[in-house]
Amino acid sequence: MCYTSPQIMEETENRIEPLPLPTIRRYPSYLREIRALTGKGEYDNGDVVRRLDEAGDGRFAMLAQETLTYAAPLDASVRADAVRMTPMAHTADLSSLDLSSLSEITIDMEIIALARP
Predict the structure, then answer these.
(1) Rounded to 5, what percent of the chain is helix, strand, coil?
(2) Cα–Cα distance for residue pair 63/65, rounded to 1 Å
(3) Is 21 helix (H, G, I), strand (E, B) or coil?
(4) 104: which strand partners?
(5) What would the DSSP string read from start to end of 39-80?
(6) Which residues of 19-49 are buried (b: 16+ CB within 10 A; e: fewer)?
(7) Residue 24 near residue 39 (C-beta atoms within 8 A)
(8) Centroid of chain to Cα 99
(9) Cβ(69)–Cβ(107) under 8 Å?
(10) CA distances from 66 to 20, 90, 99 (A)
């Protein structure tokens, strides 16, 4: 998923003052433990990345880029909340999930700051 859509990029392009435009791209291993627990497949953001690249073609300059990848431990007291806060839980029956196996979650994303040249 990319949190900066091409429509937001177009709106930013129309502003008089150039503003930084943060973009977050998630990778396939992002929250893989919750995906497995809820029966969701691997995440593929190829289409989103391609559309972002096409929409920003020459219209935005990259200010910074950082990749974050780490495993975050989950205390038993927050496991249900961690699952509940994700879109993957919208269709899942939380009472049927074995949350005891969820001892950590994987964070894997790319954060990019863009601006108009």
Answers:
(1) 35, 25, 35
(2) 7
(3) strand
(4) 73
(5) T------HHHHHHHHHHTTTT-EEEEEEEEEEEEE--GGGHH
(6) eebebebbbebbbbbbbebbebeebebeebe
(7) no
(8) 22
(9) yes
(10) 15, 29, 31
Task: Name residue 24's amino acid.
Answer: I
* Structure-block tokens of residue 31: 């929250």
How many other β-carbons are positioned within 10 Å of the β-carbon of residue 79?
A: 19
Name, in order, each residue with C-beta under 8 angstroms of 32's C-beta and a sequence gap of 6 or more.
42, 106
User: Residue for token digits 């990345």?
Assistant: 49
Tokens 């859509």 — which residue?
A: 5
- Token pair listed for 51: 């559309």
Q: What is the pTM assigned to this prediction? A: 0.61
Range with lowest mean pLDDT among 9-23, 49-63, 80-94 = 9-23
Decide which of 81 and 52 is more confident: 81
What count of residues does the chain have?
117
User: At 16, is the secondary structure helix, strand, or coil?
Assistant: coil
Give residue 84's Cα distance to chain centre.
16
Q: Fill in the amino acid letter for 85.
A: M
* Alpha carbon of residue 106 to chain centroid: 12
